[in-house]
Design brief:
homodimer, about 325 residues, alpha/beta, ornithine cyclodeaminase, domain 1, Rossmann fold, 2 domains, eight-stranded parallel beta sheet, seven-stranded mixed beta sheet
Chain lengths: ~325, ~325
């Protein structure tokens, strides 16, 4: 007889807020990727062209954790016309010792949003200059808000300039940041203007054409590029990528999915170049920023290791709080 | 607000028994594989070497079905020492139109066992001779029992000869078949003896070395090979495979995982040979058995299409019976 804990989105929002503990948990996952025998197979992707839908399944096993997640992320892009969100999804949490299902996290993508924002904070913590009062945010959606909040947990921020293709969205973002985050925020007229004084820039758009060109870079800038998590997405021009110190979450993914993929295709970076991963920088196995004048870019495509890390944190807190609904699973198959 | 239906193993055993409807549902999935734009990505596999564990994730979308399954199949081979079964697992059922999770089938592998047995019956229905009174069963585990029961739903069987490496298991199987299935069953002294008079043979072992040699074949024999669902498994000698009319469930899988994989490695079959799939035979797109003297072999590795088909049947019946536990999933992520 086994039992499974079910947790809904509202419970998970309470259990796993965006805080320093979440950022530290994700940082530990990056270190594990660089230093331990993490098992992280390529993403499983199912396409349902008749319904403009796709599903990604990600998983990873981290030797240091007692459980691992299998994350199912559907994207069904006709859903808004049905009054439903395009993105949702859930995570299964399995015991790393027995394979038994321990929990089903019905988070509708919430935990992914949190671990993605936390990864951005980890990148800034290790690659940005110590002082980063000026921040550029490119894109004005939910992840842009979370990225800024996560950054403010690891760096003092004074002035934010936001740019988005949709000016009304940028205005709403700016008003919210001024009113709720205690930071001065205004709307930039262009990506170039947004970046002009920034020590940190965060890109969070689904753009298919580069938004940041080599001419937008200046000494000391750090860019965290969050948006490119699929082949067709591209936020950083190939020449800009080649002009910076390039760091990524997982080279095997960014070679195929990330900004790196476009730079290799354009010939500005080599397919066989040695690529530094963020976990190697944290573990002091590779250099990140070496001076206050370096330009650094961190290319984040999202990894199953982050999913396993955030799911393990959620389960640990749910058990401590005795949260969730328990479902008995009948006798195992003889 | 969405809700999810949870079904446990006991409920699923009641809802989806091994019957003709299950066999027909799996047959339809084979036809869909051959005739429709089924999306079935390669299996996702995660290895956890520290715990002697592995997890396979399979999925497929069939255009004819309103939902699709994502199946998680863990195998943790140290579990018996903990008093737990090695194999368990569950299926998620998602809407093919919206990607929303509709059900979690906590079946501990039961539905996989049923769809696997049903596939064996489909293979015999389309590839065995019309009259098959004599049947050989190689292996004496749970799947051997289910295979025989499934076969008896589509063919009249008079006499079964069972062979297993463990003679005590073969004796238990024989006693059960005699007592509960109304069929005469005895234990064969060897694989060769078991097959000598058989019109149908079913192999259901985890063997890593061939059990059936070319010398064991005789005109009119049909073999359903169930056991080879991983690279290292092999029940049919490469020379035997090459001497028969070869049909499989999915060529892209059997080239890597199935009996075919070993025959290609041994050089008895060509890597680029045109391979007939079972669905093509059912859809009359390719020839299966052409005479009562053909020797046919059906190489079944198990497909995500079968999982989606059996999961859709389970959900349809659960809804009709208002079975299961409903779990509200909170507000979707804004």
């Amino acid at each position: 007889m086994t039992s499974i804990t079910l947790l809904g989105e509202a419970e998970l929002r309470n259990l796993v807020p965006l805080d320093l503990a979440a950022i530290d948990q994700i940082e530990a996952a990056f270190v594990a990727l660089a230093t331990e025998a993490v098992a992280m197979p390529p993403i499983l992707r199912l396409d349902l062209p008749a319904h403009n839908g796709e599903v990604d399944v990600k998983t990873a096993w981290l030797p240091r954790l007692d459980s691992f997640a299998i994350k199912v992320s559907p994207g069904f892009f006709d859903n808004p016309s049905l009054g439903l969100p395009s993105l949702n999804g859930l995570m299964l949490v399995l015991s790393a010792k027995t394979g038994l299902t321990e929990a089903v996290l019905l988070d509708n993508g919430y935990l992914t949003a949190i671990r993605t924002a936390a990864a951005g904070a980890v990148a800034a913590r290790w690659l940005a200059k110590a002082n980063t009062p000026h921040v550029a945010v490119i894109g004005a959606g939910e992840q842009a808000r979370l990225q800024l909040r996560a950054l403010m947990l690891v760096r003092r921020v004074e002035h934010v300039r936001v740019w988005a293709r949709d000016a009304a969205s940028a205005l709403r973002f700016s008003a919210e940041a001024n009113n709720t985050l205690g930071v001065r925020c205004d709307v930039a007229a262009s990506v170039h203007d947004a970046l002009a004084e920034a020590e940190v820039a965060i890109t969070t758009t689904p753009s298919r054409t580069p938004l940041i060109e080599a001419a937008d870079l200046h000494p000391g800038l750090h860019i965290t590029a969050m948006g490119s998590d699929a082949e067709h997405k591209n936020e950083i021009a190939p020449a800009a990528l080649a002009a910076a110190r390039y760091v990524c979450d997982r080279a095997q993914q960014t070679r195929v999915l990330g900004e790196l993929h476009h730079a290799i295709a354009a010939g500005t970076m080599r397919d066989d170049a040695a690529i530094v991963e963020l976990g190697q920088v944290i573990a002091k196995q590779a250099a990140g920023r070496t001076s206050d004048t370096d330009v650094t870019i961190c290319d984040l495509t999202g990894t199953g290791a982050q999913d396993t890390a955030i799911a393990a944190l959620a389960l640990q807190r749910a058990r401590a709080a005795k949260a969730g609904t328990t479902f008995g699973n009948g006798a195992p198959l003889k």
